[in-house]
Amino acid sequence: MNLKNIQTEVDASFLYGILAEKEENQNVKEVFRQMSEIEKSHALAFVKKTGLNENQMPKPSGRAKTLKVIGSLIGYDYVLGVLMDTEKSLSNSIGKARKNTGTPSSISDTAHVKILETILESNPKVAGNALSRFEKRHRSVGGNALRAAVLGGNDGLVSNFSLVMGIAGATSGQSEVLLTGLAGLLAGALSMSLGEWISVQSSKELYENQMSLEMDELEVNPEGELKEIALIYRAKGIPQQQAEKMADQMMSDKSSAHRFLVQEELGINVEELKGSAMEAALASFFLFAVGAIIPVIPFFFWGGTKAILFSAGFSAVGLFLIGSAITLFTGKSIWFSGMRQVIFGLLAAAITFGIGRLIGVSVMG
């Protein structure tokens, strides 16, 4: 067991502890507290296995502390989402490795996911509304907002950097490059924002139609919906008699039953439908534009080789920062992810610069 894996366990214990501190529901708080203790015990066991003592166990990493800060700014559901995504990725990786090597699977392969699910399902206090609320939260989060911000900025930077370098290779004129860069920024940002608006709006319309059909089913066939609710509870591990009783209670209020079925049967997070398609479009426009303006800035002041070098330098810094931000999702080394992003971005720009230079020479000739 290497120190990186020990660090993963330490970070998970730290983050589950943060979630426990911030959770208002006492039953769910207890789940998080138990998960924190389990992850800490894993870390201690691995430390001893490597021949170290408890005093040598690492502290929470900078990544974990950054996630804590992000949680305080945009909500701790984001932290939960990152934890769940990370654990599922680890489980999938182990499963693929066992399949490739032909080794039998082990219950420990999916421990990080299964332990949480087992605690939720076996704890009689974490049932009904608390359980449904928890599952809705961990399905609907995962850093989507921050992930969209990082990817939007990356799209804008890489695409416009490549475009600017292509034109810079074809012509030495400052005004031509500047005009092309600004046009690329505007065109790309408008395209991204329109696509986001269509995506959000069409999803809302689809979900609203499905929700309307679900309400019609409640009105026309309440007995069938009652059975569905009971089956959903039973699928969570709740005994049949208790599940039927909970379903009866749920059906006493049709609006509550509708919300439950929308969430559990259709997998729709109603909270996401409250978002504005226009707000999503504007955010997409802004995030793309922030990345796209970086390679253009030097051409406001200079032209020729000087502007090209500064543009490449600014873009390299931006690419490294984006690569560093990606480590919040992947857990990889900041230097590895940052430099990988820089290399790929510079390579793309170099290719378009070379093509632009060839075209420029051909036209001049």
Describe the protein's topology.
Elements lengths: L2 H20 L3 H24 L12 H13 L2 H25 L9 H12 L6 H12 L3 H27 L3 H47 L1 H14 L4 H12 L2 H11 L5 H4 L3 H17 L10 H27 L3 H31 L1
Commentary on this structure:
The longest helix is centred in the middle third of the chain and has 47 residues, at 174-220. 81% of the residues lie in helices and 0% in strands. It contains 15 helices and no strands. The protein is mostly helical and 365 residues long. The model is unreliable at 106-110 and 138-143 (pLDDT under 50). The protein folds into two domains: 3-140; 144-364, no CATH class.
Essential attributes:
365 residues, 81% helix, 2 domains, mainly alpha
Shape: flat
Q: What is the domain total for the residues? A: 2
Instruction: Report the sheet-strand fraction.
Output: under 5%
Mean pLDDT: 78
Number of helices: 15
In N-to-C order, the SSE pattern is: HHHHHHHHHHHHHHH
How would you concisely characterize the structure shown here?
With 365 residues, the protein is mainly alpha-helical.
